Structures are given as C-alpha cells and as structure tokens.
Amino acid sequence: MDKVQSIRLKGLEISPPLFLAPMAGLTHSALRRLILEQGGIGLLSTEMLSAKRLPMENAALSPYLVRAPQEIPLSYQLLVSRVEEVAPAIAKLHALQAEAIDLNLGCPAPTVRRMGAGSRLMEEPALVQTLVAAARKQTDLPLTAKIRLGESLDEDKLRDFCRMLEGEGIELLSVHARLRGEPFVRKPRWPWVGKVKSWVNIPVVANGGIFSVEDAKNCLAQSGADGLMIGRAAAMHPWIFAELTREVYGHAVEVPVLNKLALYLRFVELLEESFLPERRLGRLKEFTHYFAKNYPFGHHLASAVQSSASLAEAKERAALFLSRYEAPPGDH
Ligand SMILES: Cc1cc2nc3c(=O)[nH]c(=O)nc-3n(C[C@H](O)[C@H](O)[C@H](O)COP(=O)(O)O)c2cc1C
Description:
Elements: E1 7-9, E2 12-14, E3 18-20, H1 29-38, E4 44-50, E5 74-79, H2 83-95, E6 100-104, H3 110-114, H4 125-138, E7 143-147, H5 155-167, E8 172-176, H6 190-199, E9 204-207, H7 213-223, E10 227-230, H8 232-236, H9 240-247, H10 260-274, H11 280-291, H12 298-306, H13 311-323
Parallel strand pairs: 3-10, 4-5, 5-6, 6-7, 7-8, 8-9, 9-10
Antiparallel strand pairs: 1-2
Flavin mononucleotide binds next to strand 4 and helix 8.
C-alpha cells in the first residue's frame, strides 16, 4: 500500500495529517490514550497551558501535564501573553519532551481575553511578533500557531497576520474557520482556510465543524487544507481519526472492535489510571457531555452522569444507559 499522506515539520512526521484540537478539560492523558488506542491520529495535543503557571507545575502531579509514554507525538499548547513568560515556559516544555509547541492565538473565552491572551492577541500583531520571535529563539522544536479568522472578515488584516507568523518562524498554522465572536452553531467558513493557504508557504490545517467523513471531504474540497484538526468530534467519536485515515486518506488502520459501552468503560479505566480520585468525575462529566451526543436520548445519559456523586455511580448509571444500545463488553 502507498505511504499515507503526511506533513513533515523538521524531524516530526505527522502521518496521517490528522490533528487533535487542544480542548480545555478534554484533551488530557485519558482521552489522548483512548484516541491512540483507536488509531489514525497524526498529532496529539494537550489542553491550553498557562505559560505563567507552567514553570511551577509539578509534572508528576499536575493533571494538565500527566502523560503516558505512548502519547507520542504530543504537541503542547501555550497560552501566553507576556514576552518574559516565553523562555521559562519553553524550557519546561523541553524538560517535558514535547514533540511540538503550539501558540494559542484563537481562544475567545472572556477570561482568556481579559489576560490579553488567546484571540485577543490577533488584535495585537506587534506583540504577537515579539512573542513568536522570542519563542522561536528558545526552541528548535516545531513551532505552530492556532488562530481564528479574526474580529471581522478582513482579508488584508488576516493575510498580514498570517504572513507575519510565517516570517517569525511559525511552521504550521491551524485555522479554526470562524470569527472570534461566532458561536459553534454557525457553519464554519472553510473556504477562508483556503485563502490562508494561498497566502503562506507553510502547511495549513483546517479546524471547525468536522464530525464525519463527509464533513472532512467537504472541508478539504472547500479549503484545500494540508490536514484536518478535530475537536469535539474526538470526544464524541474517538474512532473518528481511524475512520478519516481510512476513508479520506485511503490508508487501512487496525481498529480494535469495541462497542460504545466498552469504549466508555475503557475511558473510565484510563481516567482511573491517569488521575487522582478527586480529579476523575469532573473529567468524566466533561467527556460524557460530548459522548452522549451519539444517542437520540443522550441527554438522559449526560444528566445521569452529571448528577452522580461518585465515579462509581456515574459508571453504573452510564453502563445502564449504554447497555440498552450496546451488547456488554466482550460480547461482540
Ligand atoms: C471544551 C472545549 C475546550 C477548548 N479548549 C481550547 C483550548 O484549550 N485551546 C484552543 O486553542 N482551543 C480550544 N477549543 C477550541 C477547539 O480547539 C476547536 O478549535 C473548536 O472546538 C472547533 O473545532 P471542532 O468543531 O472540531 O470542535 C476548545 C473547544 C472546546 C469545545
């Protein structure tokens, strides 16, 4: 079989060009391992990490930094707004053996914007230029950036911003194809990812609204992107990367035959392996919010887990719900 399509960033080969989107509360070690086990992922990601706090975090204890040896390659996303925070944060990421470093320039959350970070930075190109230059000076690792389209549709502004990033040494751009203020229900503007691609010479990855093989094909047709980044669908369908590898990139992936009940229980097991007891239930609730969307009456599953007082209770309630739809584990 032909070699599967890939993106090469220095020594890092991202093959297939399928990226896990950074998601706070979701893209922790347990979900990353679940996705890895399902196959087809090109590059894993952490959730956003505060550059200010990162140097003080204890890698062995921090739920944001817990990582199993098989989680390779893993990109760490930095939320940074001050030049003096760049060097210590990157030194820490070197110590953590990051395979790549991503800069968050797109997060629209008000708390993040008040810090002058995330999407707020797209309004401050001069500051971003100094941040990227400082980061570039500190590391030879692949350095990437994740952006939205900006405050309003402004081609000149977006073009200048993307070219500036490339000029300062950003090696790949992932583009969440929405404006800063646009909610998730709005259709993503995939053709705008194609515009970004026409302006720069680095790989451009499309993000936003990809939930199926059909979405992925439409997105690629509309954007011509070099790769795809999947966010919420990774928690809804952790097997989506394997499916896209097969159906979009034409490369076989061996996927373990797990029904959704078995997959859910495996996720609980991974939470137990990765986190201290008090950190597990919150993460299960967050995951279940998305996983429940697989079912027509999924809100019953989500609220049963949401109102659980312990992990054991949540697991039991979820198993009861899921067993109505799926055969028990091992029974397939
Ligand atoms: C719960 C949640 C947390 C997120 N956290 C981050 C984050 O830490 N950093 C970031 O750049 N984007 C974050 N995002 C945005 C996603 O990375 C992605 O751009 C967005 O969900 C659109 O992709 P999707 O339609 O595939 O979900 C988050 C999104 C969600 C739903």
